[in-house]
Amino acid sequence: MSPIEAIRSATTVAAELLGWQGKAGIVEKDAFADLVAVPGDPLKDVSVLSKIDWVMKGGQVVRPLPR
To answer: Which of 3, 25, 50, 57 is most buried by a 10 A CB count?
Structure first.
């Protein structure tokens, strides 16, 4: 599986399976757009997803992580 396929499986595909398409797995107005910041490009190296710098939920950084 390519990095983009893995990311889609964890986001848009998972949302579809849960019946939440249009509300989860996307970054759009009125969607559940919780985000993570990572030190790199997960499309080039998916392993950076295990190195989360911070988490944003509901527009607020709720979990800055120490490095």
So the answer is: 25
Report the distance separating Cα 50 and Cα 64, nearest Å.
14
Distance CA 28, CA 30 (A): 6
Report H helices in 13-60: 14-18
Q: What's the pLDDT at 24? A: 87
Predicted TM-score (pTM) of this structure:
0.73
What is the pairing mode between strands 35-37 and 54-57? antiparallel
According to DSSP, the residues that pair with 27 across neighbouring strands are: none
Extended beta strands in the chain, E state: 35-37, 54-57, 60-64
The SS3 assignment for 42 reads coil
Q: Which residue has the tokens 């790199």?
A: 40
Gyration radius of the chain's alpha carbons: 13
